[in-house]
Amino acid sequence: MLTQKTLSLEQALTVITKAVNYAKEKNHVGIACVVMNKDAEVIASAKMDNRSSRFYKAAYRKAYSAAVFERDTSAVVDLHEESMKHGHRGPREWNDTMLTTLPAGFVVMQGDEVLGSLAVAGGGGGPDTSDMTIGEIAFSALGPDYHHKPGSARH
């Protein structure tokens, strides 16, 4: 029998709660947060009130891309740049319109094993409320046993 480790619903809700609470503490207009398993299926997600659905869709695409590529979206940028050196056009040739290189998509790993991904969108307004900052804070809710794979060009 094949068994697969994944993030739990409790972990996903903890991540989302941390992101939302941080945005509220900063009086931010609102964010969207999506947590997925390693197969890029949603475990849990949220969009704060009065925030456009486009932010939810961006967070979804970021989490999806991190899960599919098994690396942060900032590292997908590295992959894209490397493939461009060999004549590839990157995202247009990946044959999946859900893929993105937008910042703040994080793969979730424990040791060498990919467990899922998370992403934040809708941040902005300064360094304290950027997608990356809120994403890192959300990621920290998982605790010290988890890490991600950032790229060289952190957004």
Walkthrough of the structure:
The protein has 4 helices and 4 strands. It has 155 residues and is α+β, with helices and mostly antiparallel strands. It has a 4-stranded antiparallel β-sheet with strand order 2-1-4-3, sandwiched between helices. α1 (9-25) packs across α4. The protein is globular.
Task: Summarize the structure in short.
It contains four helices and four strands. It is an alpha+beta fold and 155 residues long.
Strand and helix layout:
Layout: H1 9-25, E1 32-37, E2 42-47, H2 53-69, H3 73-84, E3 105-110, E4 113-121, H4 131-140
Antiparallel strand pairs: 1-2, 1-4, 3-4
Features:
Beta-Lactamase; 155 residues; 4-stranded antiparallel beta sheet; 17% strand; alpha+beta
N to C succession of SSEs: HEEHHEEH
Largest sheet: 4 strands, antiparallel
Q: Which structural class do you get from the secondary structure elements?
A: alpha+beta
- Number of individual domains: 1
Share of helical residues: 25-40%
CATH topology: Beta-Lactamase
Number of helices: 4
CATH class: Alpha Beta
Q: So, the CATH homologous superfamily? A: Haem-degrading domain
Shape: globular
